[in-house]
Amino acid sequence: MPEPVAGTQLTLLGGTGLVDEQRLCDLYSYPDRLTRCWVRSNFITSIDGGASADGKSGGLGSPGDRALFALMRELADVVVVGAGTVRVENYGGAKLSAAARQTRQARGQAEVPPIAIVTRSGDLDRDMRVFTDTEVTPLVLTATVALEATRARLGAAAEVIDCSAKDAGAVDIPTMLTTLAGRGLLRVLTEGGPRLHGSFIDAGLLDELCLSLAPTLLGGQAPRIAAGPGQAHTALRRAHLLADDAGYLYTRYVRNQ
Questions:
Q1: How far is CA 201 from the centre of its chain?
Q2: Does domain 33-44+63-255 have CATH number 3.40.430.10?
Q3: pLDDT digits 0-9 by tens, 158-195
Q4: Measured between alpha carbons, how far is residue 242 from residues 51, 189, 206 in Å?
Q5: Distance separating alpha carbons of residues 92 and 175, to the nearest angstrom
Q6: What number of CA atoms fall less than 13 Å from residue 105's CA on the CB side?
Q7: What SS3 string covers the chain?
Q8: pLDDT value at position 232?
């Protein structure tokens, strides 16, 4: 189990009580024998639905939430995130323990999952931490119109990939997932932000939502976990519900097939 879980006990509600390391990994494992990308999102909100405190989601976190955050990264082939979230949260590359790397190798995965940044404009600075503090070259998933300029700006700091379809000025979600699948990156984890999350939902390509609920009321104008012009009614079923002694709830919902 990831190191931040030290001192945190998670209980499976409606199940067998306390969850050990192996059981927790089983609860969050991806489906076997995938032939397409399986997209999991991971978010945290207050109990009144706010997705960030003082502009950052980390302000709502807890040791249990951080442990599950790390575990989901350990299980994923790739971590997909919007450029705005990379800037606000000051993203660096994924950091995994020696034990986690060995487990990934045994599963046939690369030791460390790459961060894949989704950006229509390609407006990213080469000195951003996501490019300077990483063991694995990040992927930049951008639109056709921004491709060459972004490659010229970032050079060897990133692998820049065209993910447009008919609209050369937009990143197409199905095309993006097809591109990732072609690289064998089938276990997809997205961590936001809300607009990218909304795009997955609008496209009908979000397979599951892992949502942590912090025992906090935010009020005000805190954003939701999904944003955008579309509206979808996607039926999900609850896969499990965990709790800790700090009052947090950790849910996993999976799309009805």
A1: 14
A2: yes
A3: 999 999 999 999 999 999 999 999 999 999 999 989 99
A4: 19, 20, 21
A5: 25
A6: 8
A7: CCHHHCCCCCEECCCCEECCHHHHHHHCCCCCCCCCCEEEEEEEEECCCCCCECCEHHHHCCHHHHHHHHHHHHHCCEEEEEHHHHHHCCCCCCCCCHHHHHHHHHCCCCCCCCEEEEECCCCCCCCCHHHHCCCCCCEEEECHHHHHHHHHHHHHHCEEEECCCCCCCCCCHHHHHHHHHHCCCCEEEECCCHHHHHHHHHCCCCCEEEEEEECCCCCCCCCCCCCCCCCCCCCEEEEEEEECCCCCEEEEEEECC
A8: 80
Tokens standing for 76? 């994923």
In contact, 243 and 11? CB cutoff 8 Å: yes
Rounded CA-CA distance 22/18 in Å is: 12
What is the tens place of the pLDDT at every residue in 87-138? 999 999 999 999 999 999 999 999 999 999 999 999 999 999 999 999 999 9
Give the pLDDT confidence score for residue 4 in this predicted structure. 40
Strand-strand pairing, 11-12 and 17-18: antiparallel
- Is the Cβ–Cβ distance between 206 and 234 less than 8 Å? yes
